Amino acid sequence: MKIIITGAKAIGSHLAQLLSRSNEDVTLIDEDGDRLAQLAANYDILTVQSLPCSLITMKETGVSRADLFIAVTPDENQNVQACIMAKALGAKRTVAKVDNKEYTEEQFAGFYEKLGVDKIIYPELLAGRDISNGLKMSWVRQRWDVHGGALVMLGIKLHEECTILNRPLRELCGPDDPYHIVAIKRRDETIIPGGNDELKLYDMAYFMTTKQYITYIRQIVGKENYADVKNVMIMGGGKITVRTVKELPEYMKAKVIEIDERRCEWLNDRLGDRCLVINGDGRDMSLLSEEGILNTQAFVALTENSESNILTCLAAKRMGVRKTVAVVEDLDYVNMAESLDIGTIINTKSIAASNIYQMMLDTNVKNVKFLTTINADVAEFVAKDGAIVTKKAVKDLNLPKGMTIGGIVRDGAGMLVSGNTRIQKDDSVVVFMHGLTLKRVEKLF
């Protein structure tokens, strides 16, 4: 597949790295020659130093033959313009990153498609939704609803209270049990488990279940004493904070601590009816105490500084906050943050990449999520008529190492799978993958 990316900053660089590992034909365009040289030295990509909307560059890089054109520069107007030009020159599909929610309104989707923009990505909005969704369950590190909630994935850190430690999974996840363990993160190791694997203390375990059994999962992992989140304290008043506050359910009360006085005024004008805005330094423990952190169930660090977010979440934990969330944009810090047990980690690069990556795949892939902390993908595939996965029972499919099936949605109803399950045409199948490309798994469906 021929892919052209314009914009080599955070998201563009991350995408180029991911796509080069999948052996895609990737061309990266940016004005910064030094940044391009560094990426070209480490990854198998073609780099071109040029303006993002250069018609000459687009023609020279073969945009007319491009299967996918991705515009992720910091300027949303340039991104939209570049996609319009690329589509006019023959690119099959285009995607533009924006910083304005108005672009994402469903009523305008057809308008932008007619112009030549097939997909709009607003990373801060996606991150805000992830954070809000995660705060609804204080005892869960990650949650992902599949097919409108027919299946639910829960990422949970296991502590001493967990009742299912040190037992083979074949005894825990049988055909009649209401959950499957589909992935385990143990220190620096990611495990796609088999029947002989066991859950250990401090593992990060990923459960696949249905909504009616979420309460049961909470019981067996020993998280019943975790208070539900009603009060949220947020450090930082940037774009992700704005989107998070707007996505919070009405029963949650939020306080936003922002160090810049002018930004506080701006936030008050736009969010004054949704939260209390406080001018101060969120790293100041005395300020946090004064503002009631001891009566807060969740602390969310959303500044642009990954180190500050990590350290402040650690401090909040020591002050008794059970649920902490940190934006960690520097991928080098993600594993460190996970090892420090700070809580939920949000990375907008990975969130945006997951959404864009889906455009590379066939139409039978409905949803893709990259799990940063375990370096794995989870995706929802729709089985086609005659697909390999429909020809045998799951136990006889000889699935590639590093892949497991978490569950299926059939006629709108979620169900878990056993070895004897037969996948049928049009089933939505949730698949976990570690060390495998989505393209390779896609062939099975």
Task: Tell me the major beta sheet.
Answer: 6 strands, parallel
- CA radius of gyration is 22 Å
Strands of the biggest beta sheet: in what spatial order? 3-2-1-4-5-6
Mean pLDDT: 89
Number of strands: 22
Summarize the structure.
This protein is α/β, with parallel strands linked by helices and 445 residues long. It has helices at 10-21, 33-42, 55-60, 76-89, 109-115, 123-135, 169-172, 214-220, 239-247, 261-271, 285-290, 306-318, 334-339, 348-357, 438-442; strands at 2-6, 25-30, 46-49, 68-71, 93-97, 119-121, 142-146, 151-157, 179-186, 189-191, 204-209, 231-235, 253-258, 275-279, 298-301, 323-327, 344-346, 365-371, 376-382, 403-410, 413-415, 428-433.
Task: Explain what the structure shows.
By secondary structure, the chain is an alpha/beta fold. 30% of the residues lie in helices and 26% in strands. The chain has 15 helices and 22 strands. A six-stranded parallel β-sheet has the order 3-2-1-4-5-6, sandwiched between helices. A six-stranded parallel β-sheet has the order 14-13-12-15-16-17, with helices on both faces. Helix 6 (123-135) crosses helix 14. The longest helix is centred in the N-terminal third of the chain and has 14 residues, at 76-89. The relative contact order is 0.11.
Question: What brief labels describe this structure?
Answer:
globular, alpha/beta, 26% strand, 6-stranded parallel sheet, 445 residues
